[in-house]
Here is the input.
Amino acid sequence: MSTADELARILEEAGVAFEAAGSLQDLRETRARFLGKKGTVTAALRSLGGLPADERALAGQQVNRTKGEVEALFEARKAALERSARSRDLAEHRLDVTLPGAAPPRGHLHPIARVERDMCAFFRTLGYSIEDGPEVETDFHNFGALNFPEDHPARDLQDTIFVEGGNLLRTHTSNVQIRAMTGREPPFRFVAPGRVYRHDLDATHYPMFHQIEAFCVGEDVTFAHLKGTLYAFARHLFGQDARVRFRAHFFPFTEPSAEMDVTWGEGWLEWGGCGMIHPKVLANCGIDPDRWQGFAFGMAIDRTAMLRYGIGNIRHLFDGDVRVLEQL
Amino acid sequence: MRVGLGWLSEWVDLPASREELEDRLTVGGLEIEEVIQMGPSLDGLVVGHVRQRVQHPDADRLSVCTVDLGGEAPVEIVCGAPNVAAGQAVAVAPHGTVLPDGTKIKRGRIRGVKSNGMICSSRELGLGDDHDGILVLETDAAAGTPLAEAMPPGETVLDMEITPNRGDWVSMLGMAREVRAHYGGALRMPDEEPPEDGPPAADAISVAIDDGAGCHRYVARIVRDVRVGPSPAWLVDRLEAAGLRPVNNVVDVTNLVMLEYGQPLHAFDLERLRGGQIGVRAAHAAEKIETLDGEVRELLPEDLLIVDGEGPVAVAGVMGGADSEVSDATTALLIESAHFEPSRVRRTARRLGLHSDASYRFERGVDPEGQARAADRAARLIQEIAGGTVAKGRVEALGETPARTAEIVLDPARANRLLGTALSGAEMVALLGRVDVEASEQADGSLRCTPPSYRNDLHLPVDLVEEVARIYGYGEIDEAMPEGTLGGISEPPDRSLREAVRDALVGAGLVEVMTFPASPPDDADALRLPEDDPRRPTLQLVNPITSNEPTLRATVVPGLLRLVRGNLARQVDRFTLFELSRVFRPGEGLPAEPLEAAAAVVDAGEVDLWGAGAPVFFQAKGMGERLFAQLEVEARFEPGGSEPFLHPGACGTFRVGSQDVASVGEIHPEVAARFDIETPTALLVVDVAGLLAVPRRRPHLEEVSRHPHVRRDLAVLLDRGVAAGEVLEAIRKRGGGSLRSARVFDRYEGKGVPEGKVSLAFRLVFQRADRTLLDSEVSKAVDRVVHLLEERFGGELR
Here is the structure.
């Protein structure tokens, strides 16, 4: 049989064999019969060495052409098999995608911590430093230096929880004013978020709550700046449509003093107290009140969180009920 | 303070809109807490027109009335009142009405005649005591008109919160002044001057002030031949609208005048005062007095007493004595109108726990010049209501002149600089004038200001700035933002660490809680803390919220365990919690307030679709590993630990150098029992304060190898007592320089593994940075490891 016939037979055999292969695995094994080390095409290539030199060139061309044709048949069949495998997968693979995702557990920051962060972020953009103060505090820092006279009914406003040894649980974050301003040269701006305590427990009061204190002292810091800052703060927290109202009020450590309300639904929500720092407070901190002036305010964090997250009962904030906190 | 608007309108003109008034007062500093409508509820009652009255067929005292209630046909009502007559407009309670006293009116038969309701008397309506007959209405209202619309409305009362600086507001006079400040107009003062028909008061009594620092002025008025009895209805209504209980006409007048002027008064039975004299002095040590409420009070020398010729008759400014009380038998009165030092009254009232309407006003400061006027007004009213004769003149004594700010110089430029306004001096003068501050502009532009005697809160220029702003209106002041950066920006050193811990724990899937830091005294015992544990000493609260939680916590752990218990009780049995808070450790001066974090992992081990839910210990340990990885703190885990509230067989410690930074473990069974926790629970307790001192490792990139790695898994049978961590440690040491990582990926005991043994599977990964590893190199390293496992740990390759 001539080489050409032989090669034609191999090519035909390969076509039939590849077509018969039902899987990629079969196909790869079938390929080895022709193109593997012991395959018929490989054998034909090897046999070229035994031919006379003048025939070798032509035969070589023929064998290589056949090899290329067998390769092409293989590739075509391989592509066809892959296509059908993909079609089968597309036709048959059906996942119940309604089963739950395998998500890593989600943690929950306490709503008060969330609001506090939001508030601090706001004041950072306005160039405020953050300051801290102790929760167990001296009478001097909580009252005396803040211009609460001894034996004055102003002290009754703040139902104080006293600690053995003459100290107390701070009733407001304003103690930080004294600690931060003493020994510091204005101008400066601070915020001080923190926990405060009052001897008060009923349906709407909890003996612990959180305030954010802010104070800003310079040569020309005015009541207008207090209003502007609080408006901006309220809009940041409650939206651009939030309305606010300043009511005259009394605090021993500010003059003029005001309470600030924000709109909530039909009515007003009391949000916190504010005013221009009393000259005696500045003087108590070693700051010349004739040269320096500034504003201070303390806003309710808990109440903000309750509004923002629709928490109706203040106890939900502090009773550690996972069913509640996991929703927030 | 409760203010009746009808009453107030007698003193000053009010704006037409009540809402407007409320808003203005609120913004001006008088917060309105409640609006109270006085008078009974007349819901359901209607005006009826009596068309016909006929005698009841079977009862002499009853009549049968045909009453038009505005319906299609008139109805029959049986009535027992003698004064009912055809043509009257009457108050009718139809079937189904509930009267103010709670009686429900029902249709029924009275002596055989059908009755469709009730015609009411004043008393039945809660409008008075008159029960002699039905109330005949003077009204043109059509039949069927709701009664509430046909009757004169009851008083509308605003209950207002008074800030403690404004003692002058605690009166009708003060309220009238405030309204006038906002709306202008004139004050209408009541008649004050009494008819002085009696002999001179000075003949009856002498007044002496011994403690002039405590009592600045004492004014007495004498009224004789009074008839003590019940007060007239108008007086009772006024007191009740103000929230006071009527007593008798004399006491009621003193209370009424106190409500009018803010000046507390006291009436003594003149005949019970001994020695013809009255005065004010400091109490002697251990002196006693029986007060009006029947209690015997022991006094201190700082207390101020009213005394007669023999001894104490009242605690000044706080409460009268029982012996000299006005009774029904009293005929002669001494009316006291005095000014006491506020701080003295406050100290005494607080110490004795006697907070009266008088002490409330004295503490806040009453007008030091208002005593005579109030005494006059009271004498006049008593004479009008209780009869008698007012003695001629007042008997008066003066103590020291109370400290008072007579003049304040206000610089308008300074005021504008504080407020951010541009008001002229003249505008400020006008604004101040509206609150009775007399101000005059000087040549240098400054304002010389004299506050009125009743304002004890105006001392400094800023106090006047507030008045200027308040009357001008806080809402009228512009809004602006401070300019420029003021000073450098800083943060407390522990803040970023605290927030990073918070983020890491939340990122690890934990739920944050916050709790009130008061705790029971036996928490240290419940946690099995040893005697010398730094968390054992706690700070005591002087006035705790609840008596069973009298201390401030020194650790967050017990509170967290109580929350675990609380959630388990609510049928939540798979959850994680953490609290990050300051705790309180007593020391010299103020306590230390270190930050502590504790996390609890609670897992009842319910079936989970995706096979999550490692044992609680490993969940907690993993949270610790995650925490320190995220904080970039290289903490090393070591088995065992010293926390007495953790299970000794299932606990460990994270250390940095020699410092313990966290403990992790299952809770000790005794602690579990103590906190009533039966579900598997593990704790991770982190010394956040301690972490501040620990170095943080900044991540540093090590270039990744371009060469392939080789993985080898080894399953080894080991004794159960062998710790996987130790084996791993040894493998890492012996694995050679090409061993990139080694970890345990399976642990198995049970079928196929001999008793007392465990099968641990290790995955070793080899790789070099400079070239591809040869198979033979890897095999050699693995052989070394296998040899190590056999020789040192008695292991057996499976």
Remarks:
- Chain B touches chain A through 85 residues (CB under 8 Å).
- The radius of gyration of chain B is 42 Å.
- Residues 514 and 579 of chain B are 6 Å apart (CA to CA).
